[in-house]
Amino acid sequence: MDSKRKVTISWSGGKDSAFALYKILTSGEYHVVDLHTTLNEETRRVGLHGVHEVLIEQQAAGLGLPLTKLYLPPSEDHDAYEKLMITYYKQCARRGVEQVVFGDIFLEDLRLFRENLLQNTPLSSVYPLWKIDTQKLLNDFIAIGFKTVICSADADKFSQDQVGHTIDTAFAESLRPGVDPCGENGEYHTLVYDGPIFKKPLPFKTGEVVKKQYSFQKKNAQGESERVEKSFWFQDLLPRIA
User: Per its UniProt record, what CDD domains does this chain match (predicted)?
Assistant: First the structure.
């Protein structure tokens, strides 16, 4: 009888979720039932990563793991997101899944949000990267042999020519002051295309780079909600036949 705990991995396709998966797999304590990814139902892309679902599908195939795709309406409807995730988590529980694995590192408010969601389900959470120094995480990620490309980045903190490049030690050393090494504050996002947990690398090619403007609500130092305008560079990543 398999005594390993069954888990589902919250999957963006980026380095933090990949490193969390790596730690779960190498621990020997868990059985990964699937990866689950939320996608915009119109664009078929992953949130602020901007990665198309075809690449996420191919990535999961390269990892040899099942993928569950969850589609969100394009509107900023938090209720729709919460309903979608709670429904999915309850489905997971019926399949014997016990825990959800997240790649969050230090954002307390995000963790609290996830915990509040899970209170409505039979599942609990696992955070393999929690409170680990982000410079150490990035250095270890590179040293272990993961390869990840920058797919989007805050235009206030990164230049256009930085997106589309693979993260290496030179990148880690060139970050501007105040930028978290792992981009935990949303400074940049990535797509992992190879590494020690891949059975085969993810083939892709780069398309155009576009700049997009976003506005969203954020709490200020006084705890008041205010609208913030941000611009991001997006490197379009395209499937390529291996």
Answer: AANH_PF0828-like
